[in-house]
Design a protein that fits this description.
Elements lengths: L4 H15 L10 E2 L11 E7 L4 H16 L8 E7 L23 H11 L4 E5 H6 L13 E4 L2 H10 L3 E3 L3
Parallel strand pairs: 1-5, 2-3, 2-6, 3-4, 4-5
Helix pairs in contact: 2-3
Length: about 170
């Protein structure tokens, strides 16, 4: 039996999940060192999420799913990241209490759909400036391993573009 890349990735992901399980009490995602981010696939794309509209976020997730399907959901063929700042960070918070969006209710299926995409290497980078500007405790952010803090969302968009990531914005 000849191993294939997908099987190898699944196996390695399982080991990583076991070895790298975060402490549930962990306050927030890790900080991403942008200088170490590289375009490691022939195709790489960033989706820019600076909006808080639920329908638009849902459409972005659908577009990412469609984008991945064109490459057979193979993370060796394409890398997709979401860069979120402004109202876009709310989709990655554990709850909205104490935020400008505290009177809103976000359908939990939106985050479940995002998590489903992470199985194919999709990650989200959330902006620390937004947290500071809106006085939101970063500990309110979900602590999943596929979420990372970046110093600035807009700077990250430019940095990724300079490294060869294509740019898409829904809406």
């Amino acid at each position: 039996m000849t191993p294939n890349r997908r099987g190898l990735l699944t196996f390695l992901g399982s080991i990583g999940a076991i070895a790298g399980v975060r402490n549930i009490a962990s306050a927030s995602p890790s900080k991403l060192d942008l200088s170490k981010v590289a375009k490691e696939t022939d195709l790489a794309c960033l989706y820019h999420c600076d909006f808080g509209d639920h329908q638009r976020f849902s459409q972005m997730l659908q577009n990412i799913n469609n984008h991945l399907s064109a490459y057979e959901f193979d993370p060796m063929k394409i890398k997709i990241v979401i860069v979120a700042h402004g109202a876009g960070i709310k989709f990655y918070l554990q709850d909205l209490a104490g935020t400008p969006w505290e009177k809103e209710t976000i359908d939990p299926d939106l985050y479940k759909r995002f998590v489903g995409l992470t199985k194919y290497g999709v990650e989200a980078y959330v902006c620390q400036i937004t947290y500071k500007r809106l006085n939101i405790d970063p500990a309110k952010t979900r602590s999943d391993k596929f979420l990372s803090f970046v110093p600035s969302g807009v700077a990250t968009v430019a940095e990724l573009q300079s490294k060869g990531f294509g740019y898409l914005k829904i809406g």
